[in-house]
Amino acid sequence: MLSLSAAVFLLWEKCFDMNRFTKQRLAYGVLLLGLFFELGFQTFLKRSLGPYWSPLVWTLAGLTVAGAGLWLFARKTPETAPGASTTLPRWAGVAIVAAVFLAGCALTFFRVWPVFDEFPIDPNQSDVIPSMQYYVQRFLRGETVYAPMPFSTWTIQPPYLTMTWLPYTIPELLKIDYRWLALGAFYGIFGIYVGRLVVLRRSLPEIVLKTVLPFGMLWLLIVYDRYIFGHSVELTIVAFYLFLALTLFHKRPWFMAVGIVICLLSRYAFTFWLPAYLVMLWIGKGFKPAFATGLYTLLGVLLLYILPFWIKDPGILKRGLDYYEQTAIGQWQTQPWQEPGARPFHLDQGLSFAILFYDFGNGTAQDRLAANRTAQLWVCLLAAVGLAFGYYFWKKRGLDSRLYALGSLKAYLTIFYAFLHVPFSYLFMVPLFLTVAVVYEVRASMLE
C-alpha cells in the first residue's frame, strides 16, 4: 500500500487508455492541484470550509501530492547526463538562476523584517523563543541546561531535545535575533536544492519556476499567518526535514544518519516512519548499510543528548513529556482572551482532526485528548507499516528507492499532522515545504 492516492493513480493507469506523456501531464497537474489546496488551506483558504471539512481537504491534498509524486517517480527515467540536451547555458543560465534566488531572498527578507519588529520576543506572548534563550545561555555558561525554567507566573519543565535549541548558540554568540537564523536556514537549504537542479542540468525555465516556488509559498505564509514568524523559529525544522529528504538512501550511512539525528532530536514527528525507513534500507541496500545507519544514528543521539544531558538526570525526558501533556490539556480549553464557550483557538483553525475529538468525543477534555492521541498513534503505526510493505513491491520493480522514501515521508507526515492534538499552525510548515522537495524531483522533460 503506497497510499490511497497512489492506488487511485495505479488504477487510473490500468483503466484509461492514454499515451504515457498525457498521463504524466495529468498526474503532474493533479500534483500541482494538491499543492494549491495544501498551501491554500494554510493561507488564503484557511478554515474556509469550516473546522470539520477544512482539515479533510488539507489532508487529501497532502496525500494527493504524495500519491501523484509516487506515480510520477515510478515512471522517472535516468537524469540527462551533463552536456546532453539542456537549455541551461553554463554561465548565463547560472547567473539568471542566482539572480532569481537572491531576489527571492531579498523580497522575503524585507517582507518578514517588519514582522519581527511587530512581534518582539516576549514570554507573555509566546515562550518558544524565550525558552530557547534559557537553553542556550545555560549551555554557554556551563550550567544545567534542563533545570526548570521560571517565568513571571509559570515554570517550564524543559521539553526540547538538543537540536531544537543547540543551533541558536550561533545567533546568541553573534548577539542577533534567533529568528534570523531560522530564515537563513531556509535560504540555505533551498540554495542547496536549487544548486542541485543546476548540477543536474534541468532546463532553465524549470529551474527558475522551481526557484520561485518556495519563496512564493513563504510570502503567502507571511501575509496570511505572520504571527507564526514572530513567535516561532519553525523554518529551522523545515530546513532539517528538507536536509533529511536529501540524505535518503545516500551511499554513505553516516550521512543518512546525520539527516535522521537532526530531525530525531528536534521535531520528532517521523518517529514511526523511521523504523519503516530502516526496513526499506535493509530491503534496498542490505543489512550492513541499514545496521550502520542505525548505529551512526544511535551514536549521534548518545553524543548530542544522552551523554551530555540525559545521563546526568534521567528524569528530564519524562518531566518534559509530562509538561507537554499539561500544555496540551491547556490548549484544549477556551483561552482567557476568547469569548466564553468558544472552541479552543488552535483546534478551531481547520488544520487538524483534533476538533472532531473535541466536539464529538466522550468524557472530559483530557479523555477526548487521550482518544485523539490514541487514534494518531494507531493511524501513524498502520501508515508506517503499509509504507514499508509498499516499498517491497516498489523495489521488485527496480525503481528508485530514494524517491519512494521521499514520497512515503511526505505521506506519513501528512497523516501525522492531520491528527495532531495540539495543532499550532506553525508546525504545519514542515509537511507543506516537504511538498516542494517532491515537486523538485519531477522533471519537466518527463512532460514533453
| Radius of gyration based on Cα positions | 22 Å
Q: Could you say which structural class the secondary elements and strand pairing correspond to?
A: mainly alpha
What pattern of helices and strands is seen along the backbone? HHHHHEEHHHHHHHHHHHHHH
Poorly predicted spans: 80-88
Distance between the termini: 29 Å
Shape: globular
Main beta sheet strand tally, sense and closure: 2 strands, antiparallel
Q: Using DSSP, what is the number of strands?
A: 2
Give the strand order of the largest sheet, numbering strands 1, 2, ... along the chain.
Answer: 1-2
* Proportion of beta-strand residues: under 5%
Number of domains: 1
Please give a handful of descriptors for the protein shown.
19 helices, 1% strand, mainly alpha, two-stranded antiparallel ribbon, 448 residues
Task: Describe it.
The chain is mainly α and 448 residues long. The chain has one domain (4-447). The protein is 67% helix and 1% strand. The chain has 19 helices and two strands. It has helices spanning 4-15, 20-40, 50-73, 92-118, 128-141, 162-165, 169-174, 178-199, 204-224, 227-231, 234-247, 253-264, 273-285, 287-306, 316-331, 354-360, 365-396, 401-418, 429-441, and strands spanning 149-150, 155-156. A two-stranded antiparallel sheet has the order 1-2. Helix 2 (20-40) packs antiparallel against helix 3 (50-73) and helix 3 (50-73) runs parallel beside helix 19 (429-441). The longest helix has 32 residues, at 365-396. It is globular. It starts with a helix and ends in a 7-residue tail after the last helix. Mean pLDDT is 91; it is low at 80-88.
